[in-house]
Design a protein that fits this description.
Structural class: alpha+beta
Strand content: 15-25%
Shape: globular
Largest sheet: 10 strands, mixed
CATH class of the largest domain: Alpha Beta
Distance between the termini: 52 Å
Number of strands: 20
CATH architecture of the largest domain: 3-Layer(bba) Sandwich
CATH superfamily of the largest domain: FAD/NAD(P)-binding domain
Helix content: 25-40%
Number of domains: 3
Number of helices: 17
Radius of gyration: 23 Å
């Protein structure tokens, strides 16, 4: 491995023959945070992901780092307080990917919340965060709400509570966490499936890996195997107990739709109740200034976790929310810019518990082979989950756990003190300011490495995709972020899949051409990449009802 490229994708012969302290299965936010925490403690770590980092739930969430205000109605005070403290830690660990925003929790006639109870809940929310002096809620009258958001439904509006939470780019947060793990010494391998658990006298001693890029199959030994595969948890656990893990998860599907702000004029995120089932839903202005997204559905899912897509009923449910929120919008499928669907890997609750009331807390279990599995949880709590997971692994290895320094170490790109230097260097190189802003938003301090790619050749400055995507960015993502496919780039590295009306397919030929040159694709492979990505986009772009 090139020491200047810590996230270089390792070959099989670099991994076979050595014994890692930990092998982490799963490259979502929990697995990435676990690998980072462990590597920062000095443990030797291999993380294996069958698709791409954040390819599952971790790129398909509500893109919030939040305390979970709605969980107060089910009395999950411990979970909310814990999440609020983790929200504050994430602001310090990932300052380039977190943005504090105001939220309005709307009150209408007929809602179960009273003004008194909402004020009480928001007071708890403020105090539990530890930052109540900095971000304190206030109660607003109906007139104050409509002055701020004049397009909201006015009929029955009683007022709102204004409070603060945090928006993020969940996929970029996961990628930069994984990159931080690599910078701390962990080895990462995406597009590689764990197809077996190596057992010695019934104990897990490593994994069998099938590299989906090279086709190689090989064994890697480790002192401890960790399963952080989210909605795929039971599939991995079946490798050690023959399928006895079934029923321990209750995956639920969450769908979001994206609308243009010109069609859905909303400037502040709002929480309100769906007109269909009275569940709490949240239209949210995105980090992309011209777009708003609305989520989420919450329904039981028993299908293939590899193929989760929005259904017609999901889309209609969210359009009903949109038209209830802003009655003059008159939206239908033709107004939808894009959509996404993901699974929440919730721990199965007691019989009769609704999907919305199922706990978001996490649990760590030890399997019959000694493999440790973490289930449940949410994006906000990933740092804490990782700490507890590594603590449990170390206790199995040595009888004690060492100190975690993850919460005091920014993830990759988090050194915001370098931003001014990068802006000046970019200005000197002739990079337009709006492009530099986009780099800093996506990559944080790693924008300096994108600038280096820009300066390496004249054609690197060429914009080849929507939202100011340049060849320099594509080259950075391949060289520094283990980008191996067109979907890796469009969905997880740049989020064009979510925020561009074509999903980025308007630039697919040039983008795939650049990727193909960098990755050595044949003409046939390039066409297959385009075809597969186009199908992915089509599955998430609903056709107008008249079509």
């Amino acid at each position: 491995m090139d020491k200047t490229d810590p996230m270089g994708r390792p070959q099989a012969d670099e991994l076979v023959g050595q014994e890692f302290d930990l092998v982490v299965i799963g490259g979502g936010i929990t697995g990435a945070a676990t690998a980072r925490d462990a590597a920062l403690r000095g443990l030797t770590v291999l993380l294996v992901e069958k698709d791409d980092f954040a390819a599952g739930t971790s790129s398909r969430s509500s893109k919030l780092i939040h305390g979970g205000l709605r969980y107060l109605e089910t009395y999950q005070f411990k979970l909310v307080a814990e999440s609020l403290r983790e929200r504050e830690r994430q602001l310090l660990m990932a300052p380039h990917l977190t943005e504090v925003r105001p939220f309005l929790y709307l009150l209408y006639k007929g809602y179960p919340e009273s003004r008194f109870l909402l004020n009480l809940g928001l007071t708890f929310y403020d105090v539990a965060s530890g930052e109540w002096r900095k971000r304190r809620h206030k109660m607003l009258k109906a007139g104050d709400v409509l002055e701020r958001e004049p397009h909201l439904r006015s009929t029955g509006l009683l007022g709102a509570g204004q409070y603060f939470d945090v928006l993020t780019d969940d996929a970029r947060l996961t990628v930069d966490t994984a990159k931080g793990a690599a910078e701390a010494g962990a080895r990462l391998l995406n597009h590689a499936a764990v197809t077996g658990i190596l057992l010695d006298s019934g104990r897990a001693q490593g994994v069998t890996i099938t590299d989906l890029i090279s086709g190689q199959v090989f064994d890697v030994h480790a002192r401890q195997v960790l399963n952080a595969t989210g909605s795929w948890t039971e599939q991995v656990r079946a490798m050690e107990d023959g399928g006895g893990a079934s029923g321990r998860l209750r995956p639920t599907k969450g769908v979001h739709i994206v609308l243009k702000k010109s069609d859905f004029p909303l400037n502040t995120a709002v929480f309100l109740r769906s007109p269909d089932d009275n569940r709490v839903v949240w239209p949210t202005p995105s980090l992309e200034d011209d777009l708003v997204y609305i989520g989420t559905t919450d329904t039981d899912y028993d299908g293939d976790p590899d193929h989760v897509c929005p259904g017609e009923a999901d889309i209609r449910y969210l359009l009903n929310v949109a038209n209830h929120t802003i009655p003059d919008a008159h939206l239908d499928e033709s107004h939808i810019v894009g959509s996404w669907a993901g699974l929440r890997p919730l721990v199965a609750p007691a019989a009769g518990t609704s999907t919305s009331n199922t706990s978001r807390e996490h649990v760590i279990m030890t399997g019959p082979s000694g493999m440790l599995t973490i289930s449940g949880g949410k994006l906000t709590s990933s740092r804490l989950m990782a700490k507890q997971f590594v603590d449990a692994a170390e206790r199995r290895l040595t009888g004690r756990s060492s100190r975690s320094i993850a919460e005091t170490t920014p993830i990759s790109g988090g050194s915001v003190d370098l931003f001014d230097q990068i802006r000046q260097g970019a200005a000197d190189a002739g990079v337009p300011g709006r492009i530099v802003d986009k780099w800093l938003q996506r990559y944080g301090a790693n924008a300096g490495k994108v600038l280096m790619k820009w300066q390496e050749s004249a054609d690197a400055a060429q914009i080849i995709g929507p939202r100011l995507l340049t060849r320099a960015e594509v080259r950075y993502c391949v060289a520094e972020e283990m980008c191996m496919t067109l979907a890796d780039l469009m969905v997880r590295r740049t989020s064009l899949f979510f925020w561009d009306s074509t999903g980025g397919t308007s630039g697919e030929e040039a983008i795939a051409g650049e990727l193909g040159d960098l990755l050595g694709w044949s003409a046939g492979e390039r066409e297959q990449q385009i075809r597969s990505y186009r199908e992915l986009v089509e599955r998430h772009r609903p056709k107008p009802a008249s079509a």
